[in-house]
Amino acid sequence: MTSLPSAGSVGIWTRSVLRRQPLLPVLVTLLVILAAWYDGFATVANLRNIAVQASPLTIAAVGMTYVIMTSGIDLSVGSMLFLAAAVESSSALIDQPAIGVFLAIGATGLLMGLVNGLAVAMTGVPALIVTLATMQAFRGAGGHITGQQDISLPEGLRGIGTGSLLGVPTPILLAAVTALCGGLVFSRTRFGRYVQAVGSNHGAAVDAGLPVRTVLIGAYALAGVLAAVASLTQTARLGAVQPSIGQGFELTVITAVVLGGTSLFGGRGSIGGTVLGALVLTTVQTGLVFSGSSPYVFDIVRGGVLLVAVLAAGARWRVLARTVGLTSRRRPANAGRADTAGSA
Amino acid sequence: MLPALILLIVVLSFLTDGLLAKSNIINVFSQSAVVAIAAIGATFVILTGGIDLSVGSVIGASGVASAWVMSTTGSLALGIAGGLFAGAAIGALVGATVAKLKVVPFAVTLAGLYVVSGCTTLLVHGKTIGPVPTGFIQFSIDGPGGVPDSVWLAVVLYVLAQVALTRTKWGRRVLHVGANVEVARISGIRVARTTLSVYAVAGLFSAIAGVVLTSGLAGASASMGSPLLLNVVGAVVLGGTSLAGGRGSLLRTGIGVLFLGFLSNGMSLLGLQDYDQQIVTGAFIFLAASADGLARWLRRRSTARRGPSDPQPQAAGMATG
Amino acid sequence: MKSVGISRYAVAVVAASLVLAGCSSTKSSSTSPGSSAASGGSAAAHGKKLTIGVSFDLLNSIRSAEKNAIQSAADAAGYTVVFDVADQDPQKQASQIQDLIQAKKVDAVIAIAQDGQQISSSISLAKAHDVPFLTIDRAVADQQSVSFQITGDPKADGAAVAAEFINAAKTTPLKVLELVGGLTDQNAIGRRDGFNAALVGNPNVTIVSQVPTDWKPDQALDGTSNALQKDPGINAIYSPSDFLLPSVQSALTAANRLAPIGDAKHVFMVTIDGDPNGCKAMKAKTLDADIATPVADFGKQAIAAVTTATGGGKVDPQTVQAKGLTLNQANFATTSSQVWGCGS
After folding, report:
1. Which of A135, A342, B25, B314 shows the smallest number of beta carbons within 10 Å?
2. B122 Cβ neighbours under 8 A, 6+ residues apart
């Protein structure tokens, strides 16, 4: 995400937005087709519904975008969702005033994210393994707290999922604020720039004297906090904490991020793209419901969409690299990590 | 990793009653058989620097395929063949996408996880396929020496796979591709073909695991394999095969599988609740993976020029071979 | 590989496991491994101290009630209970039952099957070890091989729900949203089929939408929201379990349609199970009827069957289907005391 070109014609601006966010016309086209096809799709209520359903996904995906941009991955998001919900429902917190509870959950998210970040940054264990391990451990910890039971949430804690402010549902507000802040941090702060630098060339970032470890820890910590926020919203909507919360969530989040144009190699990404990715996925899901399809079709579609997105991204990168004459310098010569462009 | 396994068994046998009883040891092996077989395929994939997230879905799909063929044709052999074919075909498709379309394995196999799982569930309408022939169920319950046939099968497969890795040209190609794709390509190895074959082989082993699981559960469902992904990858990692590729062996994976198996069994005998077991398992996987790098980091602490050691803290499975 | 280094860590974590084991053995749910009879065979005479292995598919409100029912019946008979939960994973359940039979050497197994077909392997294993295998709540595929099975009567319960709808539809025609449970569960299938069959030919009640939920609360939540959105004419909902009630209520709240009887917005709703949430909703008059499951019967008859079976006798009748008790607004005052969910 960069700032708008100054004073250019609308056409140039539009074209540059389209080039940077190819998902935008996809989303618009989807909405138009679905609105034309199905009655009741183009209503405010339905669109609001889609936005609400997309909110927890969006919030968590913003955090995941940062992580993936550092060339890492976080498979523990779903378990973090569950553990945060478990803490919320624990006897210690369940009767406390909402604000206190929310702050406590945010702190839980920070803690979880720090565990991931410290492990990745300090020990050199690949993020895949670290977060695979914490995926297990966090879910176990959540189970320990809840005793594997279902626990209903009291009314006071459900407002964050079902309430609204000035007519806008709270989840949407939270997602919008998250996306905005996430995008601003990404494009306007040093942290944002460092995240991209670390992801794009770890060794060079170290040599340049960047606080690489701090950046990594920060990215994972952010992902943890946002996972906790997403959990608050989702659990509030469900009205209860159940052991199955968050299972498989990490895959949906990663799909949204990759769909949005962020490269799994790191260094290249966009918060705006992630938001669009989450919206596209949720719109497709709603469209499938309207069409009366089985929910299993959604899994197939999600997989297909992911594949197409990655293929398209790969193709775009190759075309770009070839035209600019780039060779693959994505990372220091490393075991078995040959990139696609220019090395065949 | 072998000393750690031995240590684990020794410590657990002191802490618990009956860990070393013959029936319990057979129990551990029998419960680990499915993961063990799937881990063979996963090891090959990881050796090339890739990753296969679709393991669970392929297990489900091939199990369902075999159960379905068995119940419609009444033939055990056709059923097994059907299951194996399904898994290998899916694996080949994944491999082709990775090798020819040059998509990163993480993304392809993630997509594969969704698509295969969705297709399978759709085809069976969310139901479980059964019943299966009683002889088939016996495969996982009993066998020579009181050890179930499924365990013997796993052992034989491990030996074959290790031989394939170390003694055949194909195995050497796999290792070279994993160690350094560029060098492998330059030295004349058909990288794309090797990559494709590795994923096809992984699909085949996932299929064998799926068929064995169907026998063990007396029926197949689309989602029966999804909880296994964690254990399969965890076992390979615990065993010491590097995610960067090029380094590792089936022996290591076997030890990793047994480590997880005894750990889980020991915790059950200790009366640990399920969720506490998850915490311990997660901790162990991390510790095992970090022990190597941590030692190196400690040695290099004073001259911290590079950050954390060689395996960069990035996402594994990014090699497109 | 630094084998010494790993060993050091292995010891540290195994020591931690010891601590955890020490903490967890004081937990009430799972205690006393092993039992008196070495082979867990049928030689247990009346009055002998038996250990019963209980394997549940998951833990929620009704499962807790079932667990307590078994526990109190067992206590009355002087038996000990070892309890396991499989988190909706059939393979885990098979593993846990295998541990119960082979490692903990229980005298009998009572199970609620996650998958009615795949539980056959556990049934075979129990038979091979001469351990009586009993099933409750969910019917299994291989009913001939179990020593005893007591379940509800899902088809009758579904028909009872339909009766409530038919009655209410005499004044206003009802357009129904029907949620469906996980199809590996005979209860879900029976409750759906019984309901659908009873409505055939009735002109006042129409099923306009069927939402598959796989017994997953978030699927119920999103499915209900989408269905309400797609068809605003829906004025009645059938949820085949109180387990999904919080999600349905959440979806209704978001659509601004959760209202008590008497309010014009009220959506006619009937559920099955009779758990505390259901009872609360009945009292708040947001729920019109709840078909309560006879949980206490499950526990009592299962333990009685254990006594017979372990004594070498044959249990007669071998399968029992216990109908649910209809609790509606009309009979609430007199009937609520018999509903387990209203007791707490």
Report:
1. A342
2. A294, A296, A297, A300
B273 interaction partners in chain C (CB closer than 8 Å) = 24, 27, 29-30
Token pair, residue A138, equals 């966090």
Instruction: Reply yes or no on whether the pLDDT at A330 is more than 50.
Output: no
Give the other-Cβ count within 10 Å of C131's Cβ. Answer: 26
Q: How far apart are CA A195 and CA B269, in angstroms?
A: 46
Pairs across B and C, CB distance < 8 A: 160
Q: Which two tokens stand for residue B8?
A: 């684990």
Q: Is A164 exposed, middle or buried (0-12, 13-18, 19+ CB in 10 A)?
A: middle
C90, C118 contact by CB (below 8 A): yes
CA torsion angle A183 A188 A190 A195 (round to 10): 30
CB A264 within 8 A of CB A274: no
User: What residues of chain C lie within 8 A of the CB of B218, using their CB?
Assistant: 117-118, 120-121, 124
pLDDT at A220 (0 to 100): 97
Mean pLDDT taken over chain A:
84
Cβ distance B278 to A137 less than 8 Å, yes or no, reads yes
Residues 6+ apart with CB under 8 A from B84: B62, B66, B204, B207, B208, B211
Whether the per-residue pLDDT at B75 is higher than 70: the answer is yes
pLDDT reported for residue C12: 52
Q: Give the 3-state secondary structure of residue B216.
A: helix
> In chain B, which ranges are continuous DSSP H helix?
2-15, 22-47, 55-73, 76-99, 105-124, 134-141, 149-167, 169-179, 181-186, 191-217, 228-239, 250-269, 274-300
Question: Would you list the DSSP string of A205-248?
Answer: HHHTT--HHHHHHHHHHHHHHHHHHHHHHHHHHHTEE-TTTTTT
Q: What are phi and psi of C340, to 5 degrees?
A: -60, -35
Q: pTM (2 decimals)?
A: 0.83
Report CA dihedral (C189, C183, C271, C326) to the nearest 10 degrees. 30
- Per-residue pLDDT tens over the stretch C46-91: 557 899 999 999 888 889 899 999 999 999 999 999 998 887 888 8
B102–A121: do the CB atoms touch at under 8 Å? Answer: no
Q: Name which of A68, A307, A317 to mutate to probe chain B: the one with the most chain B Cβ atoms within 10 A of its Cβ.
A: A307
- Kind and range of the H or E element at C138? none
Q: Which residues of C touch B125 (CB under 8 A)?
A: 183
Query: Measured in whole angstroms, how far is the alpha carbon of residue B201 from the centre of its chain?
Result: 12
DSSP C100: I
Regions of chain C with pLDDT less than 70: 1-47, 344
- Residue tagged 């609520």 (tokens): C336
Helices B134-141 and B149-167, packing angle to 10 deg: 70
Supply the pLDDT for residue C169: 92
Rounded Cα–Cα distance for residues C306 and C309 (Å): 5
Q: Mapping DSSP to helix (H, G, I), strand (E, B) and coil, where does residue B101 land?
A: coil
Residues A197, C204: Cα–Cα separation, whole Å = 66
Beta-bridged to residue C52, according to DSSP, are C81, C108
Residue scoring higher pLDDT (A41 or B154): B154
